[in-house]
Design brief:
The structure is a homodimer. By secondary structure, the first copy, chain A, is an alpha/beta fold. Chain A contains 13 helices and eleven strands. Chain A is globular and about 60 Å long.
Chain lengths: 352, 352
């Protein structure tokens, strides 16, 4: 039987607050009955919504705070002024061991800054990453970093590979996840030295993953690998571009089906198929970016999502907590850094 | 009446050579009767295909060479060994003024290296860029750089803006094209200083374009701006990711329509709509990356395309040649660099 897991939810985060967070938690609880919840936020707003979900109410408690991080607050501001906010308290609950993961639909930059401050990066990790689930023609893959930082050194790219592999192991239940390094096609192009060096490092290093080499942007959605590693600027642009393209094609499709009465009739008859397509392309199905590289699990939901979307982020928090990936990842990172340190003098001489 | 324009075609480039290049040229000639062509490559292979297109044959000549740049040749190799190849000769024809633009479906890296060597960068341009046409919900936009270089300085990003605007003026017939700078959402993120500085520069500079500020990856396809500026690593990844996502959704759609006999029937009735959608999503419709920033026009077609796709690249070469954008761009660049130089001492003091 699944172990009981407690999630700390920032009830005030996102565009809708408790009206989305509470029903979202209720949906996820139906799928994962071992869950219990702590809602952080304004009790006067949370309690009435919670009362409408008695099963959830029996497995939840509210920690009251009126302080909220605004969606447009700068991370540095949020750090200064956000102590005691619903977001802050949710992360502190993870740190204190009261919750196994925190989920927030709030301000991404603020959440990242607070998570770094409260949960602290794992030993040897300078830069946590944000990992996104990416739907593929076969299933899903994990792409990281999708925007925690801009740029990444060779070592950081290798750490992303380890972190992504740990997450893939937890979510996809494969012991040696396949990992690809996102790159551009032309071989001799100047620049991106860190990507080339990370390629060499990942090829040679004896890591708990199956390194598949370079992959290109059009191969992400093909499901070629379990984990796609890229620095955060290009990763964020890739993610947003894919989302935009999906929306754009959805619009094309709608327009095309509305053109003539015959195509409208056809679309009506094929509505079962369109429903499947819509579900498949529904961004709420895989909602949630995970912060990796911290001593604790924090999941960021899209701010504008509804209960269905928020439930996906809660599911993700649950699966991450359930898998116990952090101790394993910590051990993998220690081994990796230990080896790197042992090799350093030799490679230093080599370069001099 | 349209002025006569001559295009230099690398008949041996791409996966299929003359079998695609010659019929592609014939298709484009139907649309642009003022065109004439020089085919560079193996006469024994070109002549028989050309003979099947008498209208084209009347407006074409062949310059024979048996030397060909292989699709997998490294750019440096191609430069050493490719003198006299079909690709090389096509570019030399542009330099010599015999042709108004060169089009090749050959090896991208080799074409870029040769184009730089033969056509030379325009005055003040260190780094030419590859610009791609990107379909949007409203029409098309131009995205650059999609992979000529990795990374870009503040000044280079501003040059990309000028080059993209010149291309947009030529293709979209707008006097002050709108230009956006591709960036990631979070405001306070560290890194990408050159993007932030380019933002300030473009906002303040009095350039022949309408600067729209930052845009994110999901906004490219919305047609928010005429020109999207980004350094080549992220730009290439964005382009490939969009292509991959479109293919992925096409696959989803096919699967969804094949599910039940009802959805199959519906899809059959709606086939007119699907045909429109397919045309809209057809990558051959907007095929061709343009090298910008050189003293001459060179267009790169996808290597694996067919005659229809190659014809789009020829169309693009024609429109670029027809517009006479190079002298105007040269003047814009000179003004820009002149102003920058005039401001340099002040800004230098400011920074010191």
């Amino acid at each position: 039987m699944a172990q009981p897991r407690t999630l700390a939810l920032d009830a005030m985060g996102g565009d809708h607050g408790p009206e989305v967070v509470v029903p979202g938690a209720a949906l996820s609880l139906e799928r994962h009955p071992a869950l219990s919840f702590i809602f952080f936020g304004d009790e006067a707003r949370i309690a009435p919504v919670l009362a409408a979900h008695p099963t959830l109410a029996a497995r939840a408690r509210i920690v009251h705070t009126t302080q909220v991080v605004a969606m447009d607050e700068k991370p540095s501001q949020a750090l200064r002024r956000g102590k005691g906010s619903s977001m802050w308290l949710a992360l502190e609950a993870v740190k204190a061991g009261e919750a196994h993961a925190a989920v927030s639909a709030g301000n991404t930059g603020a959440l990242m800054a607070m998570a770094k401050l409260i949960l602290r990066p794992m030993k040897g990790i300078e830069r946590p990453a944000i990992a996104a689930l990416w739907p593929t023609v076969t299933a899903e893959c994990i792409v990281l970093d999708v925007g925690a930082n801009i740029g990444a050194t060779t070592g950081q790219l290798a750490e992303f590979a380890l972190m992504g592999a740990a997450m893939a192991r937890a979510l996809f239940h494969v012991e040696r996840p396949t990992v690809g390094l996102l790159n551009v096609g032309v071989e001799e192009i100047k620049g991106a030295e860190e990507v080339k060096e990370a390629h060499t490092l990942l090829k040679q290093a004896d890591l708990p993953l199956a390194y598949s080499g370079f992959i290109e942007g059009d191969e992400i959605g093909q499901g070629k690998v379990d984990v796609v590693v890229v620095e955060g600027f290009a990763g964020n642009i890739a993610l947003k571009t894919a989302e935009g393209t999906a929306r754009q094609i959805g619009q094309y499709l709608k327009d095309a089906m509305m053109r003539t009465w015959l195509s409208r009739l056809g679309a009506l008859l094929a509505r079962g198929g369109f429903r499947v397509l819509k579900e498949k392309m529904d961004p709420r199905r895989v909602n949630g970016g995970t912060f990796l590289g911290l001593n604790g699990i924090a999941v960021k939901s899209h701010g504008g999502t509804d209960a269905l979307g928020f439930a996906s982020a809660v599911d993700l928090g649950y699966e991450m907590a359930e898998s116990g990936l952090l101790p394993r990842l910590a051990a993998d990172l220690e081994t990796f850094h230990g080896r790197l340190a042992a090799e350093q003098p030799a490679s230093g001489e080599h370069r001099a």
